[in-house]
Amino acid sequence: MGKFITFEGIDGAGKSTHIAFVADYIKQRGVELVSSREPGGTPLGEKLREIVLHETMDLETEALLVFASRREHLAQVIEPALKRGAWVISDRFTDSTFAYQGGGRGMSLAKLEALEQWVHPALQPDLTLLFDVPLEVARARLDATRDLDKFEQEKADFFAATRTEYLRRAAQFPQRFRVIDSTQSIAAIQQQIAAILDACF
Ligand SMILES: Nc1ncnc2c1ncn2[C@@H]1O[C@H](COP(=O)(O)OP(=O)(O)O)[C@@H](O)[C@H]1O
Ligand SMILES: Cc1cn([C@H]2C[C@H](O)[C@@H](COP(=O)(O)OP(=O)(O)O)O2)c(=O)[nH]c1=O
């Protein structure tokens, strides 16, 4: 079996910045690597991503759509890759649903746990890198760079609740989570990530 590594954090925390670095670091070890993202990662999942990121909908519809995208991602990409011994890195996975639909929007965590049990009863990431920053830092980074999607336009209290739920998950599953202080410089963060990855080989 390969290894499954997920990247998490509130929008603007710096996740995307480090994915290419991690991909290169793993490939240098001669390991087959699959790099993917959620919502998305498959043709159907990418269609669902467009809908989830840009349309207003009932909260439970939103949760069901991200889990539908995930089921397809697992079936088509993640599970076959891990079985053949490849490593998979995913920009977001189920912790995002707990943080955004659970923490941010207030959906019952018990319902999300039921969906998680349904969609991937036996699989959890081997490693989850949680990029953690204060809200003001994330907001300033976002404002400086890009047009904002539906989630990125949410207010500070939404992201405060999202961040709190991420940190709760990290405390609940300390064996797979590594919380990275993303106020550090990019170089310092990459040094920390390299040390974390070295321990995985
Ligand atoms: N450690 C850092 N220090 C300063 N700027 C950063 C840092 N990490 C990321 N950034 C910048 O912040 C912005 C958002 O980063 P990004 O990786 O796109 O965040 P995310 O994928 O978590 O939403 C980008 O312009 C990026 O260059
Ligand atoms: C995977 C997932 C993502 N999301 C949200 C979080 C992000 O705001 C958004 C995906 O954006 P993101 O992955 O941050 O992409 P980009 O870097 O292009 O902005 O989807 C959920 O609300 N629930 C989920 O389960």
From TrEMBL:
GO biological process: dTDP biosynthetic process; dTTP biosynthetic process; dUDP biosynthetic process
Matches recorded under PROSITE patterns: THYMIDYLATE_KINASE
InterPro entries attached to this UniProt entry: P-loop_NTPase (IPR027417), Thymidylate_kin-like_dom (IPR039430), Thymidylate_kin_CS (IPR018095), Thymidylate_kinase (IPR018094)
Alphabetized Gene3D superfamilies for the sequence: P-loop containing nucleotide triphosphate hydrolases
Keywords: ATP-binding, Kinase, Nucleotide biosynthesis, Nucleotide-binding, Transferase
Catalyzed reactions: dTMP + ATP = dTDP + ADP
UniProt GO cellular component terms: cytosol
SUPFAM superfamilies: P-loop containing nucleoside triphosphate hydrolases
Binding site for ATP: G9, I10, D11, G12, A13, G14, K15, S16
MF (Gene Ontology): ATP binding; dTMP kinase activity
Top-level enzyme category: transferase
Every Thymidylate kinase-like domain range: 7-193
EC identifiers of the protein: 2.7.4.9
Entry function: Phosphorylation of dTMP to form dTDP in both de novo and salvage pathways of dTTP synthesis.
Record family assignment: Belongs to the thymidylate kinase family.
HAMAP family attached to this UniProt entry: Thymidylate_kinase
Official protein name in the record: Thymidylate kinase
Organism: Duganella alba
Source taxonomy: Bacteria, Pseudomonadati, Pseudomonadota, Betaproteobacteria, Burkholderiales
